[in-house]
Amino acid sequence: MIFIGIDGSGPGLRVRVEAEDGVGLSSATGPAVSLTLGTGKAWQMVLETLSAALKPLGQATETLTDARIVLALPGLNLPAQQQLFTALNPLPGIIWTCPDSYAALVGGLGDQPGSVILLGAGSVLAARRADGTWYEIGGWGFPTGDEGSAAWLGQQLVTLTQRALDGRQPWEPLTRLCYGLWGGAWDAFFEQVATATQADYAALAAPIAEMAAAEDALAQLLLTEAGREVGAMAAAADPDARLPLALTGPLAPVLAPYLPPEATARLIAPEGTALDGALRLARAPEPPPAARGRRLVG
Amino acid sequence: MIFIGIDGSGPGLRVRVEAEDGVGLSSATGPAVSLTLGTGKAWQMVLETLSAALKPLGQATETLTDARIVLALPGLNLPAQQQLFTALNPLPGIIWTCPDSYAALVGGLGDQPGSVILLGAGSVLAARRADGTWYEIGGWGFPTGDEGSAAWLGQQLVTLTQRALDGRQPWEPLTRLCYGLWGGAWDAFFEQVATATQADYAALAAPIAEMAAAEDALAQLLLTEAGREVGAMAAAADPDARLPLALTGPLAPVLAPYLPPEATARLIAPEGTALDGALRLARAPEPPPAARGRRLVG
What we know:
2 copies of one chain form a homodimer. By secondary structure, chain A is of the alpha/beta class. The first copy, chain A, has 2 domains: 2-108 and 273-282, Nucleotidyltransferase, domain 5; 112-270, 2-Layer Sandwich (Nucleotidyltransferase, domain 5). Chain A has helices at residues 39-54, 79-87, 100-109, 150-165, 173-181, 186-195, 198-202, 205-213, 217-237, 252-255, 261-266, 274-282, and strands spanning 2-7, 12-18, 24-31, 67-73, 95-99, 114-119, 123-128, 134-138, 245-248. In chain A, the strands form 2 sheets. In chain A, strands 3-2-1-4-5 form a 5-stranded mixed beta sheet, with helices on both faces. Chain A is globular, with a radius of gyration of 20 Å. The N and C termini of chain A lie far apart (46 Å). The interface between A and B is large, with 44 and 45 residues.
């Protein structure tokens, strides 16, 4: 028996294979997998990265029967999506699937109650109650949700750049930088805006973070607004501010200094990543809970 | 010789055919045409609605040589798009094309200097300077631009509904209405959000306007914010607030009462619509100016 965790919470897929005793056997990374590509294409991409991780072990996906696999992907928090995706499993054995937010929760807090906020291209909070049940806050996706995420930051910046371009507000160093990155000419910028994807917006978070580190006022303002959004998610999950809060994902170190004080006071370092969570779930006696981890209010 | 105006600025295509002496001969309406459908599909849809308008006259598009046609569509303000689209003209004669904002400017103000703001699913300001040249402000498109438009209003409301759904803010009558309109159940709402188009967001503007008319505070707040955005476009076009300003498009009557005072003071009734503008341009001796009507600032 081997244990395999597959995590799609970041900008690319990550696979890790472990032996029964917990020793790491191999790992691989691949391109980002999104269910919006279609279920067949998403499975194909998962299989390719999994194959790469199995190759050094002399294993192939077609004969992978003696394995416990947990696959965590964004988008699996919609029950219909999760059922469809899981039903089309092309592997010979059973594969457990769960939303990436759930893997981040288990990786970050284990079984403890509290919240983990996954901050990457998107953003979502996963919380565990004292009774063990869980729920999500945020994570509604681009372009109306995922507040405070990398794509959300990029969206704000592109809107500000448009406003500078036609004189609704003055140019700033950060909007000039964005204009340059997206073509540096009116036609090129318009074309880029017309075809931009969530990933294109998310790619602007790195230059925003760099400018903020260099004390740029607008970049710091955007990160402060993102931090406020993250704080609003944390406050909704735990209005009494009593339970631990962990940030994970590529944007976590960028936004941690920008959280409001109530959230900062609850902040703990996560035990591990969403990939660690997927491996922990692979070793659990039962499959992860059904996709729906939503707290319905009102 | 007949004159034909074709206007795609609203929720559907509008065609009007006039005789030399200005008498209306026929008209037709069709589905909305967007260049994002692809150039071939967009032309096909234009031809279908044009055919419907020509039928009562015993004319067919294939033999339409003795006509002057102006076709105004959103998206034609990107020069590469306009060149590609115009080059693929399947009609036997010449057809002049222009951005819908330019047709709205000519329809609203004729040759006078001033600004016309086209308020529909999207939003864009077209302004004429005293020297006759023109430029646009806004109109960068969904989801980062088109501030104050119907799609923009719908976007704001969906974000607020998401926040209410997971407890980041209290429910309000308007967010409950939105939740009901978009499925009334968590899964259905999530699915609708995941697949929503600009038109889906724009369709929420009508219920927002109805609730505002019924004194709903949140609906009035959203319209006030939209009015402020429209005011920012007007102020950027004319910082000294000296030239006339006209609003046109389906959202114009909804937003007019919500403009800031500086914009209200400049407000005049438009002479006509974008369709009137297209017909006026069809009678002009020269084709409309090239697509690019952008004022580059800084």
